[in-house]
Amino acid sequence: MSRYDAAVRVKITKQCGEFFQPTGHLRPAVLPRVAEAFEAGDISRDHVRNIVDVMAHLPAGVPVEVRVEAEEILVGHCRVGWPDDLPGIGREVLARLDPDGMVVSEADRRRKRGIVVCRPGVDGMSWIEGWITPELRALLDAVFAKLARPGMCNLDDTESLSATAGVIDSAVLEAAARRDRRDAGQRTHDALFALLRPGVDPAGLGNHRGLPVQAILTMSVADLERGTGVAITASGGHVSVDSALKMAGGTRPVLVVLDADGIPVYLGRCRRLASPGQRLVLVARDRGCTRPGCDAPASMCAVHHVTDFVKGGPTDLTNLTLACDHCHALVNDSATGWRTVVMGEDSRYRGRTGWIAPKSLDPSGVPRVNQRHHVGERVAVAVESSCQRRGSRGWGSRVA
What we know:
Elements: H1 3-16, E1 19-20, E2 26-27, H2 32-39, H3 45-56, H4 64-78, H5 86-97, H6 106-112, E3 114-117, E4 128-131, H7 134-147, H8 170-179, H9 184-196, E5 207-208, E6 211-212, E7 216-220, H10 221-226, E8 230-233, E9 238-240, H11 241-248, E10 254-258, H12 276-286, E11 301-305, E12 320-324, H13 325-330, E13 339-342, E14 353-356, H14 375-390
Parallel strand pairs: 7-10
Antiparallel strand pairs: 1-2, 3-4, 5-6, 7-8, 8-9, 11-12, 13-14
Helix pairs in contact: 1-3, 3-5, 4-5, 4-14, 5-14
């Protein structure tokens, strides 16, 4: 057993195990609902590890009943969701418990930031490690979304497209991508190398999937008015509202503010390709690939017509959605193809994109939506229900 695995098991045991105290009394589990679900086999060890990490960051002044409800929300997600989604749910929970950012402040993040380039090894290679701020992550993600794509900036391919390429020919990029044998880490390395080479202007990287290479930040009107909460990046990251507003004051990042209904953008059938304005709204609305279960962020997605353009589908926002390249290719009229529809007025997901799996995967033919990019909605519903039961305006109002 590795040292890391042993440490994780000890950490889980301390929070989920029952122990006899020196007085002889039995000390119950710190996280009893997690322990119960784990013992029943409803959740995995990875689920428990992530829940323990989230609960450790809750403010000390949170009332016991709110802490219990936060635990129930996390356990409830585990029964239907993936362990990798829990940090995002934890950020949503923390944003509501700590709206003023007193637990993890910007000063804390600035103290923690740092990148260390270790000494070269015998082979001349150097290891890099460290922590970067959410703001730097948002900027890097925007660059890597373009330059670290398969077929871009490949040091092993002299015909690969470079960072200085102007208008990118999709056929040339697809051919280069088929020749690309690099893994994700190697593509990121080559993208950073290309970005830092002489003659490359970061401000002149052109477009990526119809938008300039720049950070895109989305926040709600309510959070903007309060000046608290988080903004979401096109790659699925989180930036505090205060930091997002500071970034938006520059010339590069784009800030999208949406109300509860979104922003209507209509182009009818005057063009097949979505406009940059529509793409911005889709990034803010869908946040990523809309096929159920897919976790590809918006920065890795193309715009898809729910009703195909060749079948009369308009290039209106109500008929557009985001889909990653892999999922986009699954939509076809064959027996094994997926279909997309707009959820109706009677659906709880009104206006969202529903995906219908082929009969071989789901004989019911029921359209389903992707919730992986909208964990905040589930947290908000659970928090509202919790506050109604306790007669409180919100979780944060009870924190000492």
